[in-house]
Amino acid sequence: MQLLLAIREHIDDPHATKQERLQCLWSEYGEIARYYSPKLGMSFIAKHVSPPNEVKHPRGWHSDVGHQRKLRSYQIEAEFYQSFAGLCGHDCYVPAFLGLLKDTYNPEQQTLLMEDLQSSGFTLVHSRVTDAHIKTVLCWLAHFHGRFMHIDISALWPVGSYWYLATRQAEYTVMPDSALKRAAQGIDHRLNHARFQSLLHGDAKLANFCFSEQKKVAAVDFQYVGRGVGVKDVMYLLGSCLTGKQLQEQHDAYVDYYFAVLKTALLSPCSSEDNQDWVVELEQEWRELIPFAWADFNRFLLGWSPEHVKINDFMQRQTAQVLSLYES
């Protein structure tokens, strides 16, 4: 009731109501709920963060480091919506920012208010993927990466994605000694010091994309948005959608599709030849980094959940390709 009163005061509508809880946040850190404002004549979403006194991690991973990372992720997400969401166009649609409520007495709590995508026509979340779904999301990613290529994003994560090495030392420590563990620092450095960097979604799985009947798509969940090479998002999307066999058969075609859209997003019709050169160089660099992206995520999974279904033959082959460079 206290939260509802705070929301009513923030939007200046004493008759606003909570319609339904949509989901709990990871490890019961809060909830996402739909509210309705008669005064505004619309529904909206509230993402309320209120960490429990005792955290229960689904896989048994919990520490103060993990707790602080999670809190920081919600602060980063709020910053993204406040300062960057408005820069996204229809080709990389995200919910509009409506407000941020902070608790003066409890700095760990916050409530992010944003557009209700369902009321904007994005009513479909797919659990079974099709070729069209993958291409639609790849198109979104290409436009998102293109949009933020030359924009200061230092207020967000210094490295986009939830698995990057500096924030996953506990998982790295429990890895058994291996060629991948020994090469992990080098792989991380190669990805993070690439010449071309943009803004990554950071958790680009299919479940974080909402589709419309008109085949448009919008993205949610920007807790791990930050700097990086676009192929990290591409790798994570394809790995979340496809089996090892499907990856072997379709991976390269999807990568080609992503780069074709990215090139279109980066090049305007009046681009000079000099401007086009850097786009060619970007594609060359990012293509070379694809196996590094796979190896980097493999490193995280081997520490976090070594029996994970995503550790398939395709991922292992990509990793072996990278490790051969360090062994020679």
Automatic annotation (TrEMBL):
It comes from Paraglaciecola mesophila. The lineage of its organism: Bacteria, Pseudomonadati, Pseudomonadota, Gammaproteobacteria, Alteromonadales. This is CHK kinase-like domain-containing protein. Residues 112-268 form the CHK kinase-like domain. It comes from the Bacteria. SUPFAM superfamilies: Protein kinase-like (PK-like) (SSF56112). InterPro entries: CHK_kinase-like (IPR015897), EcKL (IPR004119), Kinase-like_dom_sf (IPR011009). Pfam families: EcKL. SMART domains: CHK (SM00587).
